[in-house]
Design goal:
The chain is 11% helix and 36% strand. By secondary structure, the protein is mainly beta. The longest helix has 16 residues.
Length: 488
């Protein structure tokens, strides 16, 4: 009997002092997280997996359960666990530890990213560094932590304790917060307030005068643009006419100014007869496939009404690399480098100057050439928001993604024919959803090229025209395409 008691006491003691697992923070959805777009994986049934980000101090952690597909260790204590949609339970295992089975508080959705925090109990451990997530609306705001600018990242590693957080984005009020980081406080959400912007419209008699606001040329009259509310210096200049200058107050929603210029030489009227003002955002004549856009920061440029279609690609390149076939579907499964080659070849076919020279990472763009090229991020976003006719929508042309874009909930998980949804304010289609679009810009770290606008694969948040991601120059995917721009 004593022997039995001794064995029982020994078993209880061993059980009590074995390493165990503790759920620090239960499963939560991470809206706006791009992990699924970058590292998406289909299960045995061909469905997109849910991805559970497990943040833990436990090394060599293993997983099992109904619906479990696989896992990848991403370093810094983060595991990506791929689970079939509707998975309800997951087991955490490690040699020498008691297996922990955990039921999720809800069913997991496909192609959606979640987070869970797990720590080892019964072991002497000290968490010195932890991964935190900072979700900011609008997306791609610049994060600065303790005076160190981190860029537009969502997740980062930092020490437990107090930190000074600053969030900035052009066109929005900056925000500074003191945050306390510990295993129970790793998710921080903020919303920036937009700086009030107003439309400024400047006209003159005669038209065609060059207009400046605070010394920056914004175009020829009549001209309109967006500026934050405030006091500015306006100047007009035209040929033999006297320059006109005054201080104005720009207030929302619209401020209009019209000026009559004084001719310093009445005999020189003929010098200005051929000056023509160009209306903002009007249809370009070359085939009617382009929109002329003018912005005070971007200058004038033509941009494709639609993403480059498979028919257009095939007419230039002689092949069709796309996964989803159809002449009116956007061309996809093309890399950034492929898009550059298309631009140069199309320019050559139309007798225009090539914009690109060099190869690989040393490719250069001549922005003064009149040929075709990829838009810069600034050009793309200005056109996507509706140019000078912008109504301030969340998506390109509407506050409803269903009206203007194809995304993961209405696309049937494939690309759709271009121009089948409503265009934006200046007649451009599919700048929210359908396929991501390559741009000229490098990402913040200078390692990958920027893509904009979301796709048929991602959610509505990632399909806002402010959304961006990046990929390597040679990366190809069925949800990445492009559109082209050129100078007038």
């Amino acid at each position: 009997m004593k022997k039995i008691k001794f064995i029982l006491i020994f078993f209880i003691a061993a059980l009590s002092f074995s390493a165990q697992f503790e759920i620090v923070k239960d499963v939560t959805e991470l809206p706006g997280d791009l992990t699924a777009q970058r590292y998406g994986y289909k299960d045995v049934n061909g469905q997109w997996c849910a991805i559970l980000k497990v943040h833990t101090d436990v090394k060599d952690l293993q997983f099992e359960g109904i619906g479990y597909e696989k896992h990848d260790y991403r370093g810094e204590g983060v595991y990506l666990v791929y689970l079939q949609p509707d998975t309800k339970n997951l087991k955490f295992k490690k040699e020498g530890s008691i297996t922990k089975s955990h039921n999720f508080p809800f069913k997991l959705k496909p192609n959606t990213v979640y987070m869970l925090e797990l720590k080892g109990a019964g072991e002497l451990q000290k968490i010195e560094e932890i991964t935190i997530s900072i979700l900011v609306e609008p997306e791609n705001s610049i994060i600065t932590l303790d005076g160190d600018e981190k860029g537009g990242i969502i997740s980062l590693n930092t020490s437990v304790g107090r930190h000074e957080l600053k969030i900035t984005k052009d066109g929005y009020q900056s925000r500074t917060e003191t945050i306390h980081v510990d295993p129970k406080n790793t998710l921080f959400k903020y919303k920036l307030d937009r700086i009030a912007e107003a439309v400024i419209v400047i006209d003159s008699e005669p038209g065609g005068a060059i207009a400046y606001i605070d010394g920056v040329q914004i175009g020829k009259t009549p001209v309109s643009s967006f500026y934050p509310e405030g006091t500015y210096r306006v100047r007009l200049s035209l040929g033999s006419y006297e320059d006109f200058e005054e201080t104005i107050e720009i207030k929302g929603p619209e401020t209009k100014r019209s000026y009559v210029l004084k001719n310093s030489n009445s005999d020189s009227q003929s010098d200005i007869q051929d000056l023509k003002s160009v209306s903002n955002d009007k249809t370009n004549e070359p085939g009617g496939d382009y929109i002329l856009v003018r912005g005070f920061r971007t200058g004038e440029f033509y941009i494709g009404k639609t993403e480059v279609t498979q028919a257009q690609w095939k007419a230039v390149m002689g092949n069709d690399p796309s996964e989803f076939k159809g002449e009116d579907l956007p061309v996809e499964t093309i890399s950034w480098s492929d898009a550059v080659k298309y631009c140069n070849k199309l320019s050559e076919m139309e007798g225009l100057q090539k914009c690109y020279s060099g190869s690989g990472a040393s490719i250069k763009c001549d922005f003064k050439a009149n040929g075709y090229r990829l838009p810069t991020g600034a050009e793309w976003e200005y056109a996507a928001k509706g140019g000078s006719r912008s109504m301030g929508y969340k998506f390109s042309g509407s506050d409803s993604i269903e009206e203007v874009g194809w995304f993961n909930l209405n696309s049937g998980i494939k690309s759709k024919p271009v121009a089948t949804k409503k265009p934006n304010e200046i007649g451009i289609y599919d700048m929210s959803g359908n396929v991501w679009e390559w741009c000229w810009d490098w990402d913040i770290e200078g390692a990958t090229r920027v893509i904009r606008g979301g796709s048929w694969l991602v959610d509505a948040i990632q399909s806002r025209f402010t959304s961006r991601d990046s990929s390597t120059m040679r990366y190809k995917s069925s949800h990445i395409g492009f559109r082209v721009v050129r100078l007038p």
